[in-house]
Design brief:
By secondary structure, this protein is mostly helical. The chain has helices spanning about 5-25, 30-55, 60-85. The protein has one domain (about 5-85). Helix 1 runs antiparallel to helix 2 (about 30-55) and helix 2 runs antiparallel to helix 3. The longest helix is centred in the middle third of the chain and has 26 residues, at about 30-55. The termini are far apart. The relative contact order is 0.12.
Length: about 90
């Protein structure tokens, strides 16, 4: 991957991470916080992918896939708990 493109993508994703942290801190709604955390993990996954492509390392791709799996499960559990006040039933 071209270094300038990787740098630009990293800067852009880091800026989006900062914005999502601000949204997470400033909001009062639980659902908006759930969505902000989901977006935050999505941007972390994107940052891991850009880093893996720039350094040609597959280990960061493995970490991105595992983080995506945990994020998916955590979002499902928190959304279900928020809507029904129970996780299992």
């Amino acid at each position: 991957m071209h270094e300038a493109i990787a740098y630009l993508a990293s800067v852009w994703i880091t800026g989006l991470l900062v914005v999502m942290v601000l949204v997470l801190v400033r909001t009062k709604s639980a659902m908006v916080r759930i969505l902000a955390l989901d977006c935050l993990t999505l941007f972390l996954i994107a940052l891991l992918i850009v880093y893996a492509a720039d350094n040609e390392s597959r280990y960061f791709l493995d970490a991105a896939v595992i983080l995506a799996l945990f994020s998916f499960v955590a979002t499902l559990v928190t959304a279900r708990y928020h809507s029904e006040r129970k996780v299992f039933d």
